[in-house]
Amino acid sequence: MTELGTTEPSWKKNTIRTHQFNTTQGKSLHITVTPHLANVSVRLLLKQGQEPVRIDEFDRNITLPLPDDADLYTLSLGQTETLTADRWTWFIPGSDVGDSVEYTYYLGVQHVPLTEGGDVTPSVSPEYRGENFTLNYTVEIYSTQCLYFNEEIEDFRSDGCQPGPLTNTSLSHCRCDHLTAFGSGFQFFIAPNKLNILKAFQTLNFKENPVVLIALSVVVGIYLLTVIWAWRKDRQDSKKVGATILRGDQNGFNDHFYQIIVLTGSRSQSSTSARVFLTLIGEGGKSGPHELEDNNRTIFREGGVDTFILPTSRHLGSLYAVHVWHDNTGPCPSWFLDKIILQDLSDGKKYSFLCQRWLAVEEGDGRVDCLLSSATDKQISTLSQVFSSQTSKAFNDGHLWCSVVGRPAYSPFTRVQRVSCCLSLLLCTMVTNIMFFGREADFSKPPPVDILGFKVQIPISWAQLMIGVQSCLIIFPINLVIVEIFRHVASPPEKKAKDQNISSDSSTSSDVIDVEEIELQKVDKAWDFYRQPYSDNKMAEDKRKGWILPWWCVFIAWFLVFASCFLSALFTILYGQEYGREKAEAWLFIFFTSFFTDLLILQPVKVVLLAIGLTLVLRKPHDDAENQSPTLDYDEVCAYLSTIKATPVKKCHEEPPDSTKLAEMRVRRFVEISMKGALYEFAFYFLFVLVLAVIANGPRDTGMFHMTQNLRQTMNNGDDYSFKKINDVQSFWNFIRYTLTPALYGNQWYNGDSREPGGFMTDKTSYVVGPVRLRQLRVAKDSSCKLAEPVEGIFLDCTNAYSYLTQDSSSYGMGWSETPHANASSLVQNETNPWVYRHSADIPVVGTHSTYWDGGYYVTLANTTPTAVLATVAQLEPSGWIDRYTRAVFIEMTIYNPHANLFSVLNLLTEFTTVGNAYPRVDITTVRLYRFQTIWAWVVVGFEGVFIIFTLYFAFRELDYIVKLRSLYLKTFWGCVELSLVTLSLAEVGVMLYTLYIVLEFQSKQGTNTGPVERTFEKYRRAAYWDQINTYVLGCLVSVGTLKLLHLLRFNKHVVLGADTIKKAAGPLSGFFLIFTLVFIAFAMFAALVFCTTEEGFSPFVATLETMLTILLGKFYEMSDRDRIMGPLFTFTFITFFQWILITMVVAIIDVYSGYTGLYYRFSCPSNGCRLSIDSSEGSEQLYLDGYVLGDSQKIIFPGPRDTDKHARMEATLPEDLTNFTLCVHMRSNMSSSNKISLLYVQNIYVLMADPPVWDGEWHAICTTWRSSDGAWQLYADGALADSGSGFNVGGRVGRGGTWILGQDQDEVGGGFVAEQAFTGELSEVNLWDRVLSPAEIGADWAAFCNYHGNVIDWETTRIAIFGETRREEYQCSK
């Protein structure tokens, strides 16, 4: 390490420039300083561990250069040459280094001022004499070690060899007390951990250390299950490979042949079960339609490449288009077509037809057919095409792990072989990882680099780099050989037997075909033609593009697979036994964490980056699938020819479905998708909530509550000396004397015998972990605290309340006396001195009167005898350790119950306020830190892993919804619930992993004894704190997740009724809530002012709100005798007003909107008013509004001729934005259907009534639906689907507000009518819903059409204003 630096100015005597570096145990240090100015001495100071704050905190120092009379080490090299140690180098032998394996040093550099320089040459720079002088220097720090090779243990050792002071960057000086070969400590190659194989075999003990064996067994078990699955998939893939000969377009033999390669996309559910048809279009005409079918193979699967041979009666010339479609039949008809490759076998010319779209009624444009034109070279080589091709190739075939699932069917590298290669790679990685596990800790980290004044630690050392390189050299050669053999091995020779016996097969096939001799000649001739595109010669030419190995090399590959797996597993087990159980468990956790991180995160990123690089460099998509030439069997051709002979060609008359049939298909498909989606969503959320319930309640134990209560009761025992009875300083010390000390240190049984081992509390089961300590927080003596003027002469000073700004962090002498060196930088900190302030990295504590920060004045009760504790109290109490500046005293301890395996972190807080009273507060947190002790604990860990997978899937799914819906996502209630659920799930994953990281520190046996004494409690409290946060997040997550289950019950009419009631009553409830809040705050302000000085719970104002809420919820609050009149009066008034008036109003509002109390009519009157009357003449009351009977239906009549005056306005508006709607209307008109009339205009959303046959002068029910998420819309006429589509205004919305006009087209809001666009006829039953109604809800007859009641606009409850000659009459709803 070499750095440049500048010392501080001469006048800053107590400041110093520091450098940080790391080294390891046993290595000597060499520090060389080169001043940039001659004749200036330099003082070096060194500190190990924490960074020093003051000069006196450094452990050692030296002044350079060393004096001339110093005894410098000198070594003679012959008669004329000697080596002498450098006077500017500070040499620290390795024996003086600490015992830590790795540690951090801080080097301070300070120039010696001229006044302290002593014998300094007078010819120094004049600047040296000034107080602002600074010295530029170069510091070089390096560590060395001398090693020799111990032949007995076959390893390098440093015993008896130490580096000498003559060592520099170009010379190693070793001083040894024995004659052996030795070398420098630097190692180019890193040796693995030693392993005595014979000893390891002799000491195998799987009972005590089974973790590695269990891990390997699980890996092999997963491999065997995966091999079974892969074998079945390989058999399925074998059925996908091959060419299918299609029927030609004429009887007998055809003269021209085309090869058709259909590539199905790799997206999820991109395969199709429908019948697929194809028409070829060329310069010479059309051919088709032809059905692409195969009765023996599974075709059109995800990522499939299907090859067909199409005979045609004539040559079509250059092909420029193909028309492809399917009939949308089968369970999964939706199809994602990637592209089609056509090859004219007569001239070998290829044509590419790019599709890359869905042929599905529910996707894209909703069509199941497409006309594809021939792609040019420029279209094929676009960046998007190339990147998509390269990425698909990389993931599905190139990436070893991903290709197990996405392996192309045409690839000779089978899934079984890929899974076996994955096993070999995994086991080889495991053995190399365990070989070098922990070796990097034996070498020092590189020193920090100074970048722009910041110390940046280089994240990787030379040892780590070399371990990585050596591991790669061990792993990849053997596995690369295995993979390449599997990829390039030839097929077994048995598969070519049929081609060698064609003549005999021809003779036998004649019996099957049963034709005359002349037909046999035609068969042979046809066979020669059919097989030519797939002949061995052609395949040999194709294979020359790559290298092919003999077929028997596959056995070599399998031998290498099993040999590498066996040896890797063997040495992994031996290393695991050598390490012991604890180290083996640590290695397993680290290995699998890094492995899955690399597999799931880093490797996909690498694949994508590689695909981007290949895209930018090559600009050519891979064409492996296009170049595959499946072999045609002679039997297949003979069977085809026999079919030609036996059955005549039937003309295919299939055509793409028309719009009507497509609309019916779309409705049926949407119903299927909705049902599947509902079932899937229910299953997903049920499992999600189940996993949440397990991870939330799995680690919980009823013993936690009982242990907490036991400790609370222990602290509150002792009658007058219990913790809850503390109210001043004296009662605090009495609690320690008479309650705490006997409870913690009463180490005798009932008969007087001492308990062994010690450390247990009086309950005989709770063990005190570590020392109990007292921590005090004080306020500083601050002159800012001013006394009132009338008493300034009576009292000397005052004290402040505690806060972060007023806390005291100074150090004092006995009795808080100001010592002469109390604030000096040379003050020595004593870890057991209760008068010295010490910092600590603790969590702030929220008390009743303030928030208390970390640090303070500590008293550690390290001696666990009652006598020692009482002696400590006897020293602290009379010396005034708690005085009027004390604001809080914490009694901190950790209790462990070995029988319940639970830890309790106790924090007994006593707050001393400025008014002189003390307020005790008990904080007990019980957690389980030794978690992995039972099988159930590991089951919970498994569920936590499943929860992480759920969360990642959930997050990606919701992110996709947010991208599609944008702001609309947050404008729905369930969208907000989903977002909250995702946010809480991600937060839970982070908190859970961090809590697990903290808990893992306690799994080793030394977990409770490591670290300095004062850090023990902080460690346990931090673990308990994060466990609490994890519990809080889990509680919120379970609550929101359970609430989400209501969404799954939205098909239940009672649940929908409740949701609709809340939605309808949202406006009135919001207004009422404002009234409720104002009245509640009014009562709270009264109570806070009147009772804050006399009653508990009414100060501060937040406490008043809490108290009044508890009263409102039914808890009786008894006022003291000091408020005998106002107290009862206030309580009676408050309870009466809220429980009998306001809450009753809430129930009334919900009851009105619930729909059970009758029909609620909404209407608005014009400026001149409206007439409301009741008629009881018929024996029952009837309500009239302006002469129209409310409760009966009405119709609006728009008579001819057309003009701009005849229209109606609905006195209704949208309360909120709509992202889905259904709009229904009854109409009768005999207008000409050639006019496209817009009956309704709602904020740029038109409902067109042109296509359906509704202009016949009869009543018709028209409904239209629209969904924002995908723009899907449907138009129903009399319950039958008339038209539909998708992609209309995707992500849009119908904004709130607006004006509803009937009979005219608005060119501006409420006006801008044009006579030619007016409607003539009759309208009724205009209803609007904020959701898409299903076909069943829309209905199929007038019994259903007459029962429409929209939840946004209800025709029967909406007032309608009419204008011009428009009139209103009663409407009898029937056909």
From TrEMBL:
Pfam families: Pentaxin, PKD_channel, PLAT, Polycystin_dom. The chain crosses the membrane at residues 211-231, 419-438, 462-486, 548-575, 587-618, 678-696, 935-956, 977-1000, 1029-1049, 1069-1091, 1097-1117, 1129-1156. GO terms for biological process: detection of mechanical stimulus. Disulfide bonds join 785-798. InterPro entries: ConA-like_dom_sf (IPR013320), GPS (IPR000203), PKD1_2_channel (IPR013122), PKD_2 (IPR003915), PLAT/LH2_dom (IPR001024), PLAT/LH2_dom_sf (IPR036392), Polycystin (IPR051223), Polycystin_dom (IPR046791). It is a multi-pass membrane protein. This is Polycystic kidney disease protein 1-like 2. Residues 256-373 form the PLAT domain. It is found in: Membrane. GO terms for cellular component: membrane. Its main location: membrane. The keyword Transmembrane helix applies. GO terms for molecular function: calcium channel activity; calcium ion binding. Belongs to the polycystin family. Residues 1157-1373 form the Pentraxin (PTX) domain. Signal peptide: none annotated. Keywords: Glycoprotein, Membrane, Signal, Transmembrane, Transmembrane helix.
